Amino acid sequence: MSKSLHGIDLSHLTIDAVRRIFDVEDRGLLEEMAHAARELTRRQFGRTISLYAPLYIANYCQNECVYCGFHASQKSMPRSKLTMEQIDRECAALAATGNRSVLILTGESRFHSSPQYIREAVTIASRHFSYVALEVYPLEEEEYRELYLAGVDGVTLYQETYDRARYDELHLAGPKKVYDYRVECPERIARSGIRHISMGVLLGLTDWRRDVLALFEHVRHLEKKYPGVEFGLAFPRLRRVADDEHHYQEVSDREMLKIMTAARLFFPRVGISISTRELPGFRDRILEFGVTKMSAGSSTRVGGYVEGENKYQDGQFEVFDPRSFDEIKAMLIVKGFDPVVTDWRNIVNS
Q1: Residue 156 above 60 pLDDT?
Q2: Which segments of the chain does DSSP mark as H helices, in order?
Q3: What pLDDT, on the 0 to 100 scale, is given for residue 78?
């Protein structure tokens, strides 16, 4: 591939080149990036899109993150925590849709969702799903090791923002306020034996350019230090919760396309997810340009699959793409993609 507009070699992006791309407003360059990202994704991943769904088992939280619907002082949020029997029923209801990949989530409360509680939930989920991942509060290395031995295949952990001052401003209290403990967590996960780590920032908290560049540098460092770990990326956009009057920076669809295509070109082999925070039309259009994984038939409520509904007031955020698992599969097939329910086999972690 020859050099693109502005003398940027899209086939060998450096972090400095990404920085230049983010600072340039050029429709022609963005079109070149979109074409290159589409071709590279097809070459590396074919026309496959892996499907998964989140499963919330508790929503108690000790943190005061002003942008999150679960934050500790949110009095209008009904708090709940599933028993093991209820978790089993939730897993069965989700698995009945055809999904074989699950992301288990809790609020960030060690008191209400202890590592032992999470471990028992993983054991149950492993009976229903081929792939089990977690999105919970940061843990110690030995705790991740125990979860790995229980059957955890991957962990999702967002730094939210790499801007220390902004991070401190938005995280008023609770364990999450300690920036360094969170930013060092992916290394603890990698050392534990867990095979897949998904990372991201919450776009809109601050200047997305600085945050995405910092994320890229962080992941590149981890790739070099832990070559046996598979990394993934996600770029959820902030959706404002009730009573939050803080100022945020809107990230446009065009900027999202720039972020996604830059991620694909900088990380040719990394999986990239697209969130149900996005509208259906945008999710469908962005698929061509780097996405390899998407959630389908999602509920952000505790107990949402057995109850068969997804009320935003009870969830962590509003789901903007309410389509069912079967509807997402049908859309992918119409667009010429191969929806992948599972492309792995169960093995015993040791």
Answers
A1: yes
A2: 15-23, 27-45, 84-95, 115-125, 141-150, 164-170, 179-183, 185-192, 208-225, 253-266, 280-286, 304-307, 325-334
A3: 87
